[in-house]
Amino acid sequence: MAVLRLSSYRNEEMEENNGVKEIRKLGWVLYISVCVLYILSLAYILFFRTKFWVESDYWTTIRYHVNLIPLQTIREYRNTYEHYPELAVENILGNLFLFLPLGVIFCERKIRFYKSFLFSAILIAAIELIQLFSLRGICDIDDWILNLLGMGIGYLLTYGMIRILAALNKNIFSVRRERKRRGR
Predict the structure, then answer these.
(1) Same domain, 114 and 168
(2) What's the mean per-residue pLDDT of the chain?
């Protein structure tokens, strides 16, 4: 009787493990799909918009599309908010949220914060320069700051959620173990 009970328990455990493997496989496919969709969306937003109109020559246009003074653009948006509120909100929140998923990915992949920060700082600077020289955007230090801040927010929110879920999971399993112990 004990052997039969043990054997049925192992069969149930194997079936449960197979179900868990299938769910994990499905989750992994979904995760990869979302990451690819994010990267494609990011590439479209950053590089496949219309070009700037070249005012005179290429280098003069480049010179007028660079801002290296921190918070200058944000101040300009604050000053013109009355007349163009949607432009200010779209630009500031858009730059914040644009790289938030990157922070989620870094945290989920267990990449340390300082490495994520350094990689993101270099990546975003490279993107800003590519946008500038391809005439697809303005090289703005405020965009760099907001993008980096967004990545950091995504990382820290994910880290906090992982910690909360781990604590809840620990409590759930301790309750299950206690119930099993009492049931025996």
Answers:
(1) yes
(2) 84
Range with the largest mean pLDDT of 27-36, 81-90, 135-144, 145-154: 145-154
How would residue 17 be classed by pLDDT, with cut points 50, 70 and 90?
low
Query: Both 6 and 20 in a single domain?
Result: yes
HSE (side-chain half, CA atoms, 13 Å) at 172: 6
Q: Distances in Å between the alpha carbon of 97 and those of 38, 76, 138, 143, 147?
A: 12, 20, 18, 11, 7
Range of the domain at 33: 1-48
Pairing outcome for strands 139-140 and 66-67:
parallel
d(CA 161, CA 140): 32
Q: Are 154 and 99 in contact (CB under 8 A)?
A: yes
Reading the block at residue 154, the tokens are 């995504």
Q: Tell me which residue has tokens 């959620």.
A: 161
